[in-house]
Design a protein that fits this description.
12% strand, 7 helices, Rossmann fold, 215 residues, KAD4 kinase, two-stranded parallel ribbon, alpha/beta, kinase
Amino acid sequence: VVLGPPGSGKGTVCERIARSFGLQHLSSGQFLRESLGGADAAARGGAVLGLQLWRCGMGGVGSVLAAFLPPIPSPFRGGACTGFPRTLGQAKALDRICELDLVISLNIPFETLKDRLSARWVHPGSGRVYNMDFNPPHVQGVDDLTGEPLVQRDDDRPEAVAARLRKYKDAAKPVIELYKSRGILHSFSGTETNKIWPYVYTLLSSRIPPLLSDE
């Protein structure tokens, strides 16, 4: 599992892990987009899923979560998960489904995250993310592949970013402490994903043989 606040680059890190080590990238947001049809539907579906998890308490959380996970491919070498768990309750629910081998926590300065999120735009249909500072579209305001307009999510607007980051910090603290107490947490700090990645690669290389050399 890769943990990190919004805009920390955990999705990028997970994609690189999957590609370099032959693992399945398990993204809760992507599952919702594929199963519900588009980012807008995924947002609604995420709200529904969250409400279901809240209502059923600890007893039935695992079965609700399992319904949203994709079929596990065979043979299955392993998976790298982003977007879950976000709370202590979700972490305990995940325990009912699988046993985690490793948890990576990305520690990015909040000022850096504020700048990243405020510059982030998305393609609603696919969920593709662009950043106007370091990953802009070829043509400003439109998706590279479809030519359709990009939008800025309401929660990526500057006034909403600070509240999102505070909420993440409060919710993630007990999750991080849980995995730290189990001895499976590894934290990496920095402001650039490209500089953090080599350390993540080295850590994973000590656990599982890589399929690709370090990028």
